[in-house]
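Hello again, I could really use a second opinion on something today. I've been staring at a protein lately and its backbone has me curious. You're getting the sequence in one-letter code plus the fold written as tokens. I'd be grateful if you could look everything over and explain what you see. No rush at all, and the record is pasted right below:
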Amino acid sequence: MKDVNAGSVVVALCRKDGSGLIIREAGSSRELSMYLENLSGIEDGDILLIRAGDSDKFSIEKRYTHRHVINRFIRELDRLHVRINYPPEVMREADRIILSPGMDDKDIEDYTALPFVTIDNDGSRDLDQAVYVERDGPGYRIWYAIADASYYVKPGSALFSESLKRGASFYLPSFTVPMLPPELSEGIISLNPDVKRRSLLFIMKIDGRGICLSTEIKRGVIISRGKLSYSGVQEFYDDPAAGSFHGREFEPSLLMLQEAGRLLAGQSAERGVISFERNELEAAIESS
């Protein structure tokens, strides 16, 4: 199995051909091995996980049978040429980024003293936005930070090319196929709490009516003080003194976020911005 790098895990499709099986990487034309024998219990149409070790050792696990509903999702991604795994050159670039994340860049500003927080769904792992709000005279200064993916994923790189091929992350019942490797999207390009992260910051000043007076865009380093959820923040707003956020460094920012948000919502209503009420559905698949 020389086509699989040591330490990697590959999602592969299994197809019967004559008396043997052809194993092909999902989303790719790359055949990992031809006519493997003695694959006990593996049938035509099954989806495998191939884990490669050192010294050409590997293990094969039948993950989804040809009857499993997840099998259909993976085969649809394969039809669209979306790879479940990432090419070796992409992972090599990801490894280099992790080793040298650019936190000591002299061209970016240090905002680690500001108590940013992220607010997402409970199960979110790729945290790409954080917020901090402070009083500014009769109005507010809103600091909105997004993970600086553009610093790491540059045009001409293997990461950039692979991202264009995928176009987006695919969120499916029971699993996700990220646009960027999880080592990046859930690691160095995720605004995880208590660690330094590069960010693109939008610094907006609004007056006491919620009218935007100015906006600056800067690159900087931040440290999120907490991975908050929508439900947790709502509980805090319902009773600020009773929740676990009371007394935390970011409590004043959350309270001013609510105040500034009300002003901005009022301005939106005056401009006739349409508000869409959306319901979120959550689906899970259980193996029978």
About this structure: Residues 6 and 54 are 5 Å apart (CA to CA).
